[in-house]
Design a protein that fits this description.
It contains 15 helices and no strands. It has 390 residues and is mainly α. It is globular and about 50 Å long. Pfam families: MFS_1.
């Protein structure tokens, strides 16, 4: 688990730099909202196409191998993107990155679940989130600080993005030493069909992931540009604000276990969804800079306390043999939601309709709350033989 955490830290550091600078880098290269939307749509599109086949392959050939290969491809993609100037080259780097991310999404929490006993699973997954978000925050600070001190590489931001990719390359080296998680496919056993009809638990959580993916793309991929355009901030201040936001995410992730112990799992998830929905909706009404920061930090803390609970609960409701399948179908449905919302978010960005993007996000989170109360809440804590099977 220690190796997993420090390699995930390299991952988070690189992502923090990229989240701060990639859109600004593309803008500096002369690309507009259409290209930004296309680049941000690559990852969910690849997840949409490959998540289920990759989950199947992970069960057949080994989750650890799939996780390692995914980490390597993501790192290579992070290096390739700042090297290219052309639209085709940048998109090629993003596709390599996206294939790696799809492999990680199909296996990561299934691997963590096999490392830890069931009673420690909520804590373990919240620890993974906390470690990752903390390093993204440090990466965001570096993304705001380093461009002024590193030499130009295509743009002011290219050298820092390339450095982030090189840091990411440390992660696949470290993950060579992870304790292997065996294949779920026994020798001589007939392989399962590539696309099988998901059971009730997988389908229920996959639809929830679709709504979650729909909530992400209106604002998430474009937050740095929204802050820059709405409040006319410098890159260093954007990096500082994004780092502050990551601190809020970190606080949310480490508070998960305390919230569950204090309020119980079912009520905690509902309460957090209410806060996130109201915070996003309030951001849609043209908040002042100070109020914008306060609401942004509130929704970040609440959402990051919520997502580890969702992931650990989705892992718990199926037996181990179905966990990669659960993750891959959730990634598939989340990818559909991401594609729709990232495209729509790009349109909002192009028309400077930032308030609409926040309002849509708040509305979708309200839909998540309704779906949770109707279909998910009754399954939590119901991980008996009925929910552990096919």
């Amino acid at each position: 688990m220690k190796i997993f955490l420090w390699t995930d830290a390299c991952f988070g550091l690189s992502i923090g730099i990229s989240n701060t600078l990639l859109n600004l880098h593309l803008n500096a290269l002369g690309y507009g909202a259409t290209m930004l939307s296309l680049v941000n749509d690559v990852v969910p599109m690849v997840a949409l196409i490959l998540s289920v086949p990759l989950g199947h392959l992970a069960d057949r050939y080994g989750r650890s191998k799939t996780l390692w290969l995914g980490t390597l491809l993501m790192a290579l993609g992070a290096v390739l993107v700042p090297l290219f100037l052309t639209r085709l080259g940048i998109l090629f780097g993003e596709v390599v990155f996206a294939v790696g991310q799809a492999m990680i999404m199909s296996t990561e929490f299934a691997v963590v679940a096999q490392y830890m006993p069931a009673n420690d699973r909520h804590f373990s997954i919240s620890l993974v989130y906390a470690n990752f978000t903390l390093m993204i925050g440090i990466g965001a600070l570096l993304g705001g600080f380093l461009p002024a001190h590193l030499p130009l590489f295509h743009t002011l931001y290219g050298s820092t993005l390339l450095l982030g990719g090189l840091i990411f390359l440390i992660a696949p080296v470290g993950r060579l030493f992870l304790t292997p998680v065996p294949s779920m496919h026994k020798q001589g056993e007939k392989p399962a069909a590539l696309f099988e009809r998901p059971n009730r638990q997988i389908l229920t959580f996959s639809i929830f992931s679709f709504i979650s993916g729909l909530a992400y793309g209106f604002v998430g991929p474009y937050l740095n540009l929204i802050i820059k355009n709405q409040f006319h901030m410098s890159v260093s201040l954007i990096g500082l604000l994004l780092a502050l936001n990551q601190c809020a995410l970190f606080i949310g992730s480490v508070s998960t276990s305390w919230l569950v112990e204090r309020f119980a799992l079912q009520r905690t998830i509902a309460f957090l969804l209410i806060i996130v929905s109201l915070s996003y909706a309030s951001l849609g009404f043209g908040a002042s800079f100070l109020l914008f920061i306060v609401l942004l930090l509130i929704q970040s803390m609440s959402s990051m306390a919520f997502f580890p609970l969702l992931d650990s609960t989705a892992i718990d409701v199926v037996r181990d043999a179905l966990r990669a399948k659960m993750q891959s179908y959730r990634a598939l449905f989340r990818g559909v939601g991401n594609v729709i919302s990232v495209y729509t978010g790009g349109l909002c960005l192009a028309h400077h309709a930032y308030g609409l993007a926040f309002l849509l996000t708040g509305f979708i989170y309200g839909g998540m709350l309704i779906y949770y109360l109707r279909f998910i809440r009754s399954q939590i804590g119901n991980t008996s033989s009925e929910t552990l099977g096919a």
